[in-house]
Amino acid sequence: GQVGGGSVPTRLLPTFCAAVCDGRLSAAALDERLRAREIPVVGRIAHDRLLIDVRTLLPGDEERVLTAVTEVFKGL
């Protein structure tokens, strides 16, 4: 993951991402639906997949993210 722009635009942090993709929904549409939830799930898009950076999750967030993704796909 990137540290950010500004003074260290090339600095990277080691991370692990979960890629979420489905042929029925584009990565952009999935991202939009997850961000629009009451408790938003924010990822980034790369190579036509939504990436959720596990480094940014707090303990217990895994279940919330899994529930959100499951509910989005159940609604299709």
Task: Write a structural description.
With 76 residues, the protein is of the alpha+beta class. The protein is built from two helices and three strands. The chain has helices at 27-35, 61-74; strands at 17-20, 44-46, 49-53. The protein has a three-stranded antiparallel β-sheet. A hairpin with a 2-residue loop joins strand 2 and strand 3 (49-53).
Shape: globular
Total beta strand runs: 3
Mean pLDDT: 88
Strand line-up of the largest beta sheet: 1-3-2
State the helical fraction: 25-40%
| Main structural class | alpha+beta
Query: What portion of residues belong to β-strands?
Result: 15-25%
Give the SSE string.
EHEEH
Low-confidence stretches: none
Largest sheet: 3 strands, antiparallel
| Cα separation of the termini | 31 Å
